[in-house]
Design a protein that fits this description.
The complex is a heterodimer of chains A (about 110) and B (about 220).
Chain A lengths: L1 H26 L5 H19 L1 H11 L4 H45 L1
Helix pairs in contact in A: 1-2, 2-3, 3-4
Chain B lengths: L3 E7 L6 H10 L4 E6 L6 H7 L3 E4 L6 H14 L4 E4 L10 H10 L4 E6 L6 H18 L11 E4 H6 L9 H11 L4 E6 L5 H6 L4 H16 L2
Parallel strand pairs in B: 1-2, 1-4, 2-3, 5-7
Antiparallel strand pairs in B: 4-6, 5-6
Helix pairs in contact in B: 5-7, 5-9
Classes of the chains: A mainly alpha (about 110), B alpha/beta (about 220).
């Protein structure tokens, strides 16, 4: 029982730190509002689950996975896939933007001559 | 006679670029635009020496980027017909006329369909696979989507919006033709498979998969 409380305290500290970090990133305009809200919401959810782990088992039952831990792992996997996908699209977009710049330079350089 | 501009995308093609420009000029195509796609060899200098208009990419961007620049440059230079021609000498310059004839008949885009029986089997299978997936993803079947010899009218070229950077551009062109409802003509052409052209444009299986992924991204990012 004591162990659980120590873990919960540690968990809450970590989650709070991350939430403060996310807030600072938004404050310094490193992330946009939408990302800020999504991330704060996500970590708040994690915080709630740390305080009341039994909740996760209830959710798991509703979704039909059985154990709370399983539901967390499924969710984490889904999130990772989603993030990688988003990142790939972003990289592709950047790649195309670089081409636009290179093209403009090529056309302008020729015009000057 | 309409104003025809030939676009030659070139990346490290110093061995063939001079000859490619020469044969184009010998066949009466005097307006040649070379896009030097960040070559590390003498492609740029050699192309200038042969009297082509040369546009230089400061870094390598791939076939898609080079064609995009070449087509925009042609439009800026007032081209009425735009032909794309590979620098590796795999095309017969006589075939350009066949494509132009198709445009004169009222088609918007003409693509050379390489019917050379000497195409190595593995390459033929790969190309067919890409034709198939281009059909699945973009809904238009073309017999030789990866062909480098194409011709566009000015109107078609200004409608075609290319965003992909590398080899996947060949399929993207088909997509643009389909979306803009352009009239496409496939014209049978020669393909000259020299040892050089084989080693250059060889699309490996992995490249094929990469092209596929890019095409799907292109689809998703619409």
């Amino acid at each position: 029982m004591n162990n659980t409380i120590i873990l919960q305290v540690l968990g809450i500290i970590v989650v709070s730190l991350i939430m403060i970090l996310v807030f600072r990133m938004y404050f310094k305009r490193k992330i946009i509002l939408a990302d800020f809200i999504v991330w704060e919401f996500f970590w708040a959810l994690v915080g709630i689950l740390v305080l009341a782990p039994a909740l996760m088992t209830d959710i798991a039952k509703v979704v039909g996975v059985g154990r709370g831990v399983d539901a967390i792992i499924y969710f984490a996997l889904f999130l990772l896939f989603y993030l990688i996908f988003k990142l790939s699209v972003r990289v592709e977009k950047l790649d195309q933007d670089i081409t636009k710049v290179v093209k403009e330079i090529a056309l302008k350089e020729k015009k000057r001559k | 006679m309409k104003n025809v501009t030939v676009v030659v995308p070139a990346y490290n093609e110093e061995k063939t670029i001079s000859k490619a420009i020469k044969i184009l000029k010998n066949h009466g195509y005097n307006s040649v635009i070379v896009v030097d796609d960040g070559s590390k060899d003498n492609t740029y200098e050699l192309a200038l020496k042969e009297g082509a208009k040369v546009y230089r990419h400061i870094i390598n961007r791939g076939l898609g980027g080079a064609l995009n620049t070449g087509i925009s440059a042609s439009l800026m230079n007032g081209a009425e017909f735009i032909v794309t021609f590979d620098a590796d000498l795999q095309h017969n310059p006589k075939d350009i006329k066949k494509l132009i004839d198709a445009l004169n008949l009222g088609y918007d885009v003409a693509i050379g369909n390489r019917i050379n029986k000497n195409m190595p089997l593995i390459r033929r299978i790969g190309n067919k696979g890409l034709d198939f997936f281009t059909w699945i993803i973009f809904g238009k079947y073309v017999h030789d989507t990866q062909s480098g010899l194409r011709a566009f009218t000015r109107n078609a070229a200004s409608k075609i919006n290319l965003r992909t950077n590398r080899m996947e551009v060949s399929s993207e062109i088909i997509r643009e033709v389909s979306i803009n409802k352009l009239k496409l003509r496939e014209v049978p052409i020669d393909a000259i498979y020299t040892e050089y052209s084989q080693s250059k444009g060889n699309t490996s299986f992995i490249d094929g998969i990469k092209i596929l992924t890019k095409l799907m991204f292109r689809r998703i990012m619409e």
